[in-house]
Specification:
2 domains, 38% helix, two-stranded antiparallel sheet
Length: 266
């Protein structure tokens, strides 16, 4: 059963988004057709994931979608099951600089940062991690650093690297679309820790639109790491929320087919 992200978001106080009939019908047709047509690929990928490493084939994470409702966001598992526990082993591969250094030189002493991570909470989004303390610091200072994104991340399986490159790990989200959690086109569902920070009047509108597999900011800047700030992405999401239409969705779908291959090996 779906739940809202916060009691502060009262459905009686806001104008909730209602899915248009044309969009829901389109989602059902596309998702059901996709599942049936791609079923052999689903089976092959599931076997590949299972044979390479132990653990569940499907990775489910809590995401915040339309109207701030939380649901289980599905992906093919692309990392080893103990990926979160191994994070501190590979801090020297982090592509982002830390906003504050807790030791003399974190970049030259990975063990220093590993020590700083002990006992701290890791927050996760699609392809990067951040220490909870660093994330709160960056929010207060309006900075875009502190994220942990590993070059050639060794926690990703060989199968995982392949399915990420070609976005095949996203295929289980067709089931999310079929059951109504999200749409084919819409704003990317956010991890709870990110969504909790977007409750101001200037930000909230991006949630009163469909949550989707592909969206406006993804087809504009996907694979171009660091070119969009969180605020820029949010503004593109708000733009989509204000201009949802059949023609706009078709434009995004067409652009998706030309930009779905990720340019980075991360």
């Amino acid at each position: 059963m779906k739940e809202m992200i916060s009691n502060e978001i009262n459905p009686k106080n806001v104008h909730l988004y209602k899915m248009p009939l044309w969009k829901r019908v389109f989602d059902i047709i596309v998702s059901l057709s996709g599942i049936l047509i791609l079923s052999p690929i689903f089976i092959i990928l599931a076997l590949a994931v299972k044979l390479e490493s132990k653990g569940p084939v499907i990775y489910a994470s809590k995401r915040v979608g339309t109207n701030f409702y939380i649901f289980n966001f599905l992906k093919f598992r692309s990392m080893y099951p103990d990926a979160d526990k191994r994070m501190k082993e590979f801090m020297h591969r982090n592509q982002y600089s830390l906003t504050e250094e807790k030791c003399e030189d974190v970049t030259k002493d990975p063990e220093c940062e590993s020590q700083n991570m002990i006992g701290q909470t890791l927050l996760v989004n699609d392809d990067s991690f951040i220490l909870e303390s660093d994330y709160l610091d960056q929010v207060h200072k309006h900075q875009e650093h502190g994220f942990i994104k590993l070059e050639n991340d060794p926690r990703i399986t060989r199968t995982g690297r392949f399915i990420r490159k070609y976005s095949l790990d996203e295929l289980p989200q067709l089931f999310n679309v079929l059951r109504g959690d999200m749409s084919v086109v819409g704003n990317r569902p956010l991890p709870i820790y990110e969504a909790e920070l977007l409750t101001k009047d200037d930000d909230i509108e991006r949630f009163f639109a469909p949550a989707g597999i592909t969206g406006w900011w993804q087809v504009n800047k996907r694979g171009d790491s660091g070119s969009l700030s969180a605020e820029e992405r949010n503004q593109l999401d708000i733009y989509y929320a204000k201009h949802v239409s059949f023609l706009f969705d078709m434009k995004i779908i067409i652009k998706t087919f030309t930009s779905f291959i990720q340019k980075e090996n991360v």
